[in-house]
Amino acid sequence: MLIPRKAFGALTLALCVAGLFLFSNSILQWSVYVFGSHAPLVPYTTHIVLLQFKETATSFAVKEITSRFFGLKKSCVHPDTRRPYVLSITGGKDTSSEGLQDGLSHAFILRFTSKDDRDYYVKDDPAHKAFKEAAAAVVEKTVVVDFQEGVFTSA
């Protein structure tokens, strides 16, 4: 026998695993096939906030407000679950060379599981209200756009 008896099981397992990799496009596809998709049935709601700071705002004040903005991910707590409900916050300072910013200098993107969570954040969340009050001292203009991923009509 060319293969020792003790190595036969390990070799068989290795060939099966190699075959799995070779005959599938990716492990992710297999995991979705076996375990199902974990994506929400309703698309995420994305909340984009664009800020223009006042000319009198110091770099320290801008840093303070942007840091507080990122802190909303932990400080915004859902009243029913008592847990943070903002899925993610990302953002940064504008670097575009197109010149179409109209004074807007900072962008933030927030993701919510649902429109209801976004609505609570916008209308009722006390941490968000406190942030807006603090930001009003240094923010000149705010532009907000919300959308659901992949939804382009209101059918």
TrEMBL record:
Stress-response A/B barrel domain span: 45-147
Pfam families listed in its UniProt record: Dabb
- Stored SUPFAM superfamilies: Dimeric alpha+beta barrel
Coiled coil segments of this chain: none
User: InterPro entries recorded for this chain?
Assistant: Dabb, Dimeric_a/b-barrel, HS1/DABB1-like
**Which Gene3D superfamilies is this protein grouped with?**
3.30.70.100
State how it assembles. Answer: Homodimer.
Task: Give the protein name, as stated in the record.
Answer: Stress responsive A/B barrel domain-containing protein
Organism of provenance: Didymella exigua CBS 183.55
